[in-house]
């Protein structure tokens, strides 16, 4: 089918690509823009590890047609750290051993970044909801939740 | 999984979208409406049906959002995302908000829409699978074949033909609020009680005609009715309801709506003293459904849980009664 132009701002950089209607946002990010931090897991919306922030909200990029994201601001895991300076969420994940195989980590981090942006002092239920959309096959949820709570404390301390 | 090729239209205005749907329907083109895409994209990836055209309505901003109605009720655009719905109706209809937050996961709720949840495809362990998985079995009725793997004795002409189960969480809750849906077509629209939207078959699931689009959901106000929803599932996220029980109390009226255990939502209504109506509902509920072996929980367990959840929901609602 005929390709169409799609404009995306990814991690602050504007891109324009010609894509087929059948291309997903995940495929464009990984295969056209080479941003492979966004993972392809189940590819049908069950596992959550393709999460990106689309206009600020976490979504599953495997379920978003690239043409549906036309004009959107996308933030991927590559846009979370500031140069070599890790985001407080990333630092907390490292400090708390909240990473085992690492496959779900980009999604867990982006969901946590979104949570702390919208709710700086999340309670236990809010943190559980935050991780509920991503499957960690290493089952390391306890440490991931601890890391999110620690990141919340770190974020509220630094002005 | 790669998506098959399809043509894609994304009209900017509702009249244009309705005209396009009418043209496609008249030409006999197989099309699907894309709202949030969270149900449609997996369907397309699994090649569940040959789709010529995807009509995306995601630019129809007129269909997004919640508005107050003169009667004190609400009008909700079908394109309202579940996360936005949960926020915007929390004060007026907390049970609708809570129910929306029990659907899927946060990421999916940020795309999935109210209309999409009401029209979510019925689910079957044999049908909603990859083509490779489906090819292991002979094609079932829904796949255009001549067999039902859940009910192997079923012959074409059976009613219902396809036993794939209904899985919307919001439908039973909105049905007990007497919600109506607006189905628009080019130049006309009709209102339908939500409970009348569904057909008792896993293939012909709804009354939405070719060329029609679900545009709005109307929720009337009621000062006295209270509704509660309980969902049985393995995990507290992502899963469709193995069984969903919505219960409403309004004076002497008791209402029950069930999801996840039949091809369509099952609605029961009673009037009288609560002791008697509750007993009757607990007896009737399990008899009115036909759960099949297509879930983690056995059909017998899901049936047994119907009276349990009805009683639990009534207990919650009765508690709210006492100040």
Describe the structure.
- The complex is a heterodimer of chains A (159) and B (323).
- Chain A is of the alpha+beta class and 159 residues long.
- Chain A has two domains: 4-78, Ubiquitin-like (UB roll) (Roll), CATH 3.10.20; 88-157, DNA polymerase, domain 1 (Orthogonal Bundle), CATH 1.10.150.
- Chain A is 35% helix and 16% strand.
- Chain A is built from five helices and five strands, in the order ββαβββαααα.
- Chain A has a five-stranded mixed beta sheet with strand order 2-1-5-3-4, sandwiched between helices.
- In chain B, helix 3 (82-88) runs antiparallel to helix 4 (94-100) and helix 9 packs antiparallel against helix 10 (299-321).
- Chain B has helices at 14-26, 40-45, 82-88, 94-100, 106-109, 114-118, 131-136, 170-176, 274-287, 299-321; strands at 7-9, 31-34, 53-56, 66-68, 74-77, 180-185, 188-193, 213-219, 226-232, 243-250, 253-259, 266-271.
- The model of chain B has no long low-confidence stretch (mean pLDDT 95).
- With 323 residues, chain B is of the alpha+beta class.
- In chain B, strand 11 and strand 12 form a beta hairpin.
């Amino acid at each position: 089918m005929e390709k169409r132009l799609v404009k995306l701002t990814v991690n602050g950089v504007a891109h324009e690509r010609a894509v087929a209607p059948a291309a997903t946002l995940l495929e464009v990010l990984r295969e056209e823009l080479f941003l492979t931090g966004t993972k392809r897991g189940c590819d049908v919306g069950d596992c959550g590890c393709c999460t990106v922030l689309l206009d600020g909200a976490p979504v599953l990029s495997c379920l978003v047609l690239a043409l549906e994201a036309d004009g959107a601001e996308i933030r991927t895991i590559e846009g979370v750290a500031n140069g070599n300076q890790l985001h407080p969420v990333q630092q907390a994940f490292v400090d708390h051993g909240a990473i085992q195989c690492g496959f779900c980590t980009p999604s867990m981090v982006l969901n946590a970044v979104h949570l702390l942006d919208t709710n700086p002092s999340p309670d236990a239920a809010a943190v559980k909801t935050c991780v509920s959309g991503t499957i960690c096959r290493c089952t390391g949820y306890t440490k991931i939740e601890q890391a999110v709570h620690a990141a919340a404390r770190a974020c509220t301390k630094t002005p | 999984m790669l998506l098959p090729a399809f043509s894609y239209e994304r009209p900017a205005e509702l009249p244009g979208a309705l005209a396009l749907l009418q043209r496609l329907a008249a030409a006999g083109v197989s099309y699907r409406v894309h709202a949030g895409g969270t149900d449609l994209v997996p369907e397309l990836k699994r090649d569940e049906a040959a789709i010529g055209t995807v009509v995306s309505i995601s630019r129809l901003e007129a269909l997004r959002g919640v508005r107050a109605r003169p009667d004190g009720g609400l009008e909700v655009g079908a394109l309202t995302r579940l996360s936005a719905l949960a926020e915007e109706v929390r004060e007026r209809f907390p049970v609708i908000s809570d129910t929306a937050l029990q659907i899927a996961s946060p990421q999916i709720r940020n795309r999935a829409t109210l209309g999409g949840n009401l029209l979510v495809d019925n689910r079957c362990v044999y049908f909603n699978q990859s083509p490779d998985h489906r090819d292991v079995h002979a094609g079932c009725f829904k796949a255009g074949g001549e067999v039902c793997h859940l009910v192997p004795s079923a012959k074409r002409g059976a009613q219902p033909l396809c036993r794939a189960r209904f899985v919307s969480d919001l439908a039973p809750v909105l049905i007990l609020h007497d919600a109506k849906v607006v189905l628009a077509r080019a130049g006309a629209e009709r209102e339908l009680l939500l409970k009348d939207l569904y057909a008792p078959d896993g293939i012909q699931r709804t009354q939405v005609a070719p060329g029609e689009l679900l545009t709005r959901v109307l929720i009337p106000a009621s000062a006295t009715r209270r509704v509660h929803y309980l969902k049985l599932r393995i995990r507290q996220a992502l899963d469709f309801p193995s069984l969903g029980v919505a219960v409403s109390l309004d004076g002497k009226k008791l209402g029950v709506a069930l999801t996840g255990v039949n091809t369509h939502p099952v609605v029961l209504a009673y009037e009288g003293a609560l002791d008697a109506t509750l007993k009757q509902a607990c007896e009737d509920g399990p008899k009115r459904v036909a759960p099949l072996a297509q879930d983690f929980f056995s059909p017998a367990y899901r049936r047994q849980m119907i009276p349990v959840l009805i009683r639990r929901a009534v207990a919650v609602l009765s508690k709210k009664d006492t100040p």
